[in-house]
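pinging the channel bc i need a second pair of eyes. not urgent but kinda urgent?? the chain im working w is below, pasted from the shared doc
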Amino acid sequence: MKLIYLYTNSFKGLSKESWMLALVMLINRAGSMVLPFLGVYMTNHLHFSIENTGIVLSFFGIGSVIGSWLGGFITDKIGEYKVQYLSLLLSVPLFCLIPVFKTEIGVGAIILIQSIVSDSFRPANSVAITKYAKPENITRAFSLNRMAVNLGFSIGPALGGILSAISYEFLFFTNALAAFMAGILYIIFFKKRNKVARLKAKKVKEVIEIKKENSPYRDGKFLIYCFFCMLFSICFFQLFSTLTIFYKNTAKLSQEHIGYILGYSGFLVVLLEMGLVQIAEKYFSLAVTMFLGTFICGLSYAMLGFDHSMLTLILSMSFLCVGEIWALPFMATITALRSGKNNKGAYMGLNGISFSIAFIITPYLGTMIAEKFGFTLLWIGTGVLATFIAIAFYFIVPWMIKDRKETDKSYV
């Protein structure tokens, strides 16, 4: 009974806007079945080599870097409302164009453009979460949003595995439809609220002189933190590239079974996230939570270096889900705490860039190591690297947050 109360209590106090942001994210991500299958699509359908597939997937990361920077920059200029709906609606035709291209250069180019447009959404969305959430509920608001992402991710890949067995084109057109629906819903709900928020902000500007705040690109401690976020992402994001290839080529899973395992991961995160976040907030410090989350993610990959039976695959994915719950939403919270009141978009954008750089490095590095040295070395090496990152987070997080408390009297 205590666990049930703790779980249900974790949803209390969240604003209507936070719930709607999560619903928009759910609809958008329910159609996001392309990314986990891009590697399989290029190797099996377009017959690219594994190494060339890794190079093409890196263009997604390059676009993500540009999109994260551009999204953060524009958000601080024109607001998160316009950036989010433009990103969603402009993604629609780009998703439809992906299956038109059949060469490495063509696929890389369209993925680059699509990634720039889609990933400009992320820093704007993060700013919106901090804007509409109560200060004491920021982590849970991020967790609710991530829960929506994972619920969509549990639906998308499972459906994607079935559809890709029929035709890969269905994946791209479904993504386009979901992005369109999410964009329209977002505009309908937030158009009036955005006008009210802008009027309030305008009145505040007329009364209070806005303090000019430092750029995150000159914040040395935050740059170090983002570097380790990037290293963590290099480990974690193998979920979207090398892990699916490992499932297909080494574990000999069908596309449907790959979709089921990925769907299981999304479902498990939805089931556990809010409760585990509540436990972490109540019993752990930010440093301990980040240590545990990062270490458990590394452990989940290291297990695959010793066995790839179905039981091990499911157990590994279960550990990965718990690890990401105690890492990813708290990374966003730490970024929000480190930023000021008027440069959240830039801070969220820079932190997003650290994830995006990993999207460039991970597919190429992972596929190269797997092809030249084997998956066993890749998975064990990932576990060792994640352990090192976990130890680094344990010391960096309190060092950075303490510095903000001492230097910023308006610290939340």
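so The radius of gyration is 20 Å. and Residues 169-207 form the longest helix (39 residues). — does that match what u expected or am i reading it wrong
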